[in-house]
Amino acid sequence: MKRLLIILFLLSVNSYAVDTRQLSDPKQQESYEILTKELRCLVCQNQTIADSNAELAADLRRQVYEMLEQGKSREEIVQFMTDRYGDFVLYKPAFAGKTTLLWIAPVIFLLMGLITVFFFIRRKNASANSKAQAGSLQIDQDKQKKIRNLLEKGDAS
Amino acid sequence: MLKYIIPLVLFIIMAVFLALGLNLKPSEIPSPFINKPAPEFSALNLNAPKEKLTPTDLKGQVWLFNVWASWCVSCRAEHPILNQLAQQNTVVIIGLNYKDKPVDAKNWLNTLGNPYNISIMDQDGRIGIDYGVYGVPETFVIDKKGLIRYKHTGPVSAEDVQQIFLPLIAKLQAES
Q1: Between these two residues, B39 and A133, which has the higher pLDDT value?
Q2: Are A84 and B32 inside 8 Å of each other by CB?
Q3: b/e string for B89-113 if b means 16 or more Cβ within 10 A?
Q4: Is ipTM strictly over 0.85?
Q5: Nearest-Cα residue of chain B relative to residue A54
């Protein structure tokens, strides 16, 4: 029973290919696979057209397949899709114009975080140092005498 | 003083982003077609299967291009509003019957009314791809020169007609 479950589980992992198309040229086949994984299904939005079984995804796969068969290059197909659906159709949008902020935002946030951490630690260290100094000074001057007296004279009672 | 200003500024920045996020509609993808010529097609008329329609036939008039299908639930919600708009006779309405069976489509129009001057058929969804259609219903407004001036994704509501479509149509019709 356990073994059967494991086999079923393993089988289910590879079930993403919704329909398979075979191009005669292995290079084109590779392009087909890469392209369908780079293009977003606009109905489901968080799936590529290779993963999605929405009707639109099937139509877009057919479109990619036909254009490859006509000998269109990958760039031409990507251009075709962005002309119609905008940059959003690409999982990896081009680094230009409107998408610049999208690309550099993670770096900006990381830098902001690092700067905050740097100042936070510096301030914390500074205040910890001054507190420690203040503490030892007090013990030095006032209390240390009392401690010594107590030690020398012993307990008065 | 700075101790109070920094959290306040951070709070305001966050509030602005969250407010923007609340009003964003991630399902609405900006159309790259605005102010571009309506893509060409030559498609068969649903009610007269021997006649073909191309965007060139519609040059010189403002027209709506409404993508619909009998299987589309939101289209049913939108349909009475299109019927009302059609009764006003202010604009030519062309339907794109998207990935539908002609029989089902004709039945739909017979029972619910036909707001379209002409409906054309796109059974395999190719015209849909050329117009970047990803969620039916969608409505394009096309001006006299054949440029797409506005795209509405999802069902058109009565408010949309009053606030967006009618003013835009009036403006486009005033253009030469």
Answers
A1: B39
A2: yes
A3: eebbbbbbbbbbebeebbebbeeee
A4: no
A5: B134
